[in-house]
Specification:
Largest sheet: 4 strands, antiparallel
Structural class: alpha+beta
Strand content: 25-35%
Strand order of the largest sheet: 1-6-3-4
Order of helices and strands: HEHEEEEHEEEHEEEEEEE
Number of helices: 4
Shape: globular
Distance between the termini: 72 Å
Helix content: 10-25%
Radius of gyration: 23 Å
Length: 234
């Protein structure tokens, strides 16, 4: 027969295990904050030009197209939960927290029907007025390429060829026009594709603008704000 001290120790162990499992039960997947931090802090430490760029954490799921509206990303720390808002491409502003890194806080993923991963996603900052000079887009793409070469030595032979404006799949009216000099603005074709060239899932409306060889100044006019502007690097 089990003695009283041993029985009490066993009960306490069972209660502790039950409490620990209950704390994480609502999430079907989780990611290591420490791993995500290491991936994201490289952009913070990068000393090259990055004024046209933004760096966000992007969830990678098996789902095609925009992320499900009920998908949630939660930073679970000893001080409480912080909900990280996701855009339709799965991106969120990532909080760089030394405290969360030290405790290796989990990033809980709720609403996912399968495995979830992440990547650091660099994109071009959208303009509030919806107007983009081709020279600035070239400079933004060049900054993105320089950063890519900083993080990946195999990118030395790649080049900037343009940018991609990303829109929801429900959009049917072409949202981007390009004007050259005094000529009338020309509407760029709207097609379906991936938000980012290296993404697996498709299902977005995209407008690709490729840089001209002559480099003549042009202006791009958008009628609605894009979900993202991706550098086209080939």
């Amino acid at each position: 027969m089990m003695n009283a001290p041993r029985r009490l120790a066993l009960l306490l162990a069972l209660l502790f295990s039950a409490g620990a499992s209950t704390a994480h039960a609502p999430a079907s997947e989780w990611l290591s904050y420490r791993d995500a931090y290491r991936a994201m802090v490289a952009f913070q430490k990068y000393g090259g030009p990055k004024s046209y760029l933004q760096n966000q954490l992007q969830l990678i799921t098996a789902q095609q197209g925009a992320v499900a509206p009920d998908l949630r990303l939660i930073l679970h720390t000893r001080d409480g939960d912080q909900y990280l808002a996701l855009d339709p491409t799965g991106r969120t502003v990532f909080p760089l927290s030394t405290a969360a890194y030290n405790e290796n806080a989990p990033l809980l993923v709720r609403g996912s029907s399968g495995p979830v991963g992440f990547r650091a996603r660099v994109s071009i900052v959208p303009r509030a007025n919806g107007l983009y000079d081709s020279a600035e887009l070239r400079a933004a793409c060049a900054q993105a390429l320089d950063y890519l070469r900083y993080t990946d030595a195999s990118a030395q032979t790649r080049a900037c060829v343009g940018v991609r404006f990303v829109y929801p799949n429900a959009l049917t009216t072409p949202p981007v026009r390009v004007r050259s000099g005094a000529a009338d603005a020309v509407t760029l074709p709207l097609t379906e594709g991936r938000a980012f060239p290296d993404d697996g899932p498709a299902g977005f409306r995209i407008v690709n603008y490729r840089f001209s060889h002559g480099g003549e100044p042009r202006q791009l006019i958008t009628s609605s704000a894009p979900l993202a502007i991706a550098p086209l690097i080939e």
